[in-house]
# Entry
Amino acid sequence: MLTDFSNEPLLDFSNDTSRRLMAEAVEAVQSRLGAHYPLVLGGERVDTRDRIRSVNPAQPDETVGTVAKADAALADRAIAEAEKAFVTWRRWDPAARARILWRAAAALRRRKFEFSAWLVFEAGKSWAEADADTAEAIDFLEFYGREGVRWSREQPATRLPGEENHVFYIPLGVGVVIPPWNFPLAIMAGMTTAAAVAGNTVVLKPASVTPVVAAKFVELLEEAGIPPGVVNFCPGSGGAIGDRLVQHPRTRFISFTGSRDVGLRIWELAAKRSPGQIWLKRVIAEMGGKDAILVDETADLDAAADGIVASAFGYQGQKCSACSRAIVVKSVYRDVVERVVARAKTITVGPPRDPRNAMGPVIDQAAFDKIREYIAVGRGEGNLVLGAKPAEGPGYFIPPTIVEGVAPAARIACEEIFGPVLAMIPATDFGQGLEIANATEYGLTGAVFSRDRARLERAREEFHCGNLYFNRKCTGALVDVHPFGGFNMSGTDSKAGGRDYLGLFLQMKSVCERL
Ligand code: NAP
# Structure
């Protein structure tokens, strides 16, 4: 019998067995680097002369793998294959569709260390961050499988004498799934399988810096029994084929997670009717953040400093939920700055294949350059109290960087940097701190450290973000515990991992028969 959903436990790498198994997986994956992965269209392997080379950001001369690169014609073919498969997949028993996700979850659980090792090489994740990504992918598969069954049930409708009424959900059609690189397994897998389990078929265009993990996941889905054409693996440059996929008249919906600018572009393009298009496209767009942690004078300052450091520097600050602003009430501001700096100083930065390194590289040269530019901007906007110098090594290493005394309107306090750069901002009191926290175009995550009940209740109402946490870090949302998604320019607030999510991939049908 199917058990209730529960979250996949995270591994403890101080445990000898977990450490040994992960070290073995890292060795094994290292020996498999450099392989080539074609497109998968309608179940068929399709290769191209043009290729995308995925590199290890800790050692950019090391090729993790290459993948075929779709052009516009192959993007069109991917849509056509998805459309063909939709005819039968939409009629599958929802429980049978869900079983494929559960089989994939079981396989991923068995191969957990291997997938986490791929994340270490391709995304530069520390062991713990890689394990959390893999665990979240398992959670999505388990949870969305159950949700697929739940949403397929007949929906309640009030009885009307003389009529028999039925209300139920049906899938939308062909969806284009465009995930980011920062959770290249969990977010990619969650977006893809939520759409598919609801009866849609998918063209998956992975992020170009992390396509190998996606290729491995598509293989896993095939092994679990996903029919040809339900998930079409279609890597290619977002700039080159993204518009084509979004504008295609047979695309029914676009599920996107990534930056504000690309999200806005997709939103606009999808709103324009293409020749031959007979529906309004649905867009699910989860975008950036400029997330804040607010600390007042009643807070446990050690806990606050721990929370700020974990949220700001976990996975090199490359989480949409990362704390990039610490807003601290003046009377404890100096104290908190000192505690945060003291903790951040102890973080070791280096190649993540070595478990002693808590922080690895940022994702690529472009990210490295952009973050360094922001650090230069930050020097002029406050006091640089930690970081700045790139860490040793050929990879894209940037150490934890803290700028304090930053004004709320400074660029580093307003723009998403997406790297290990924390702006610390003094506030006169809690009320002003809340105003500063809300003075952003984003609204993804936030946290408050306080022991004052009235203030926490005020923040519950007034702190305008999709995921708000009290007296803990603002990263690490868990599936079906903290449904995830943001307000304003952070996106359409889809609440991934929540019980409304599957509804985004469905439409309701009402059938009435006169008796
Ligand atoms: P990105 O540059 O916007 O890329 C995201 C995806 O969009 C990639 O697959 C990319 O493909 C594709 N793309 C680029 N241009 C496109 C176009 N014109 N049309 C269609 N697709 C296009 O974002 P990223 O750097 O991967 O991810 C970091 C961003 O994601 C941050 O802003 C972060 O806050 C956000 N994020 C948000 C959430 C959330 O839940 N709100 C979660 C994770 C990340 P290529 O790789 O080929 O360019």
Remarks:
- The radius of gyration is 23 Å.
- The chain is about 40% helix and 20% strand.
